[in-house]
Amino acid sequence: MDRSERLILIQIILLVGGSLLIGLLLFFQFHFILDNLIKIRDSDVVGAIGTIYALISAFILSNVWSNFKETEQAVSQQNEAIITLWNSADYFDSLKESNRMRASLVAYINSVLRDELIHSRRFESSLPGKEFLGIQRLIDSIKLVSGRDEIVFSSIISTYETLSIARNKRINRMAESMPQMLRVFYIIASIILWGGFAFEGFQNPLLYLTVNFSVTTIIVLNYFIIIDFDNPLDGFIRVSFDRYLVSRDYILHATHTTHT
After folding, report:
1. pTM for this prediction
2. Would you state the pLDDT for residue 74?
3. What mean pLDDT is reported for the chain?
């Protein structure tokens, strides 16, 4: 468990525990006074608030989940393109051209793991670095010495375009974040829903605390799930970049043909 996961657990425990303490205070100090002052029950009001909250949560969760899955898809597409580039380049007749492509692809993977993830964590768009542009320059400088090289080169041009599209998609999706106003609106709706249950007319303290704990846990976990999906690089739910490590290892060790 890393630092971000420990921080999330601590926040969940503090929020749920704090809500229980506040609930106890409300029940034993103010509950019966309020119950005597207002003769109507607020079940219908709480039900309406709960419905609105559910709709808001479903809308936000659907959007952040969709963005998260598109990020995962972009990572997968990018690694598939990297592997395809190497598989194609390894069929060049010239060992020199194959080795140049291997070095460029490995350098780019290292730059993704080192630099582009830092930009993504800061929600910044990252312009193509020298390693990514190096692949393009390498493709421009490839010398074709046989008919097979021409076929391989055509595949490399097409795959590089796929790689570029997948890279841009991944970076854009990681740089996107839930609008601040929508986040504030969701937090306010969560507090109002919790408050509605906190002042619900329970007579049994055990039942009151059970409902309070259940509602608070649902609200808090729902909030952190949304935040986790909204930030795909940290927390319990994150996009795995192990694919890049696998791709790098494959490029360094896989050879399919004998070069001249």
Report:
1. 0.75
2. 92
3. 79
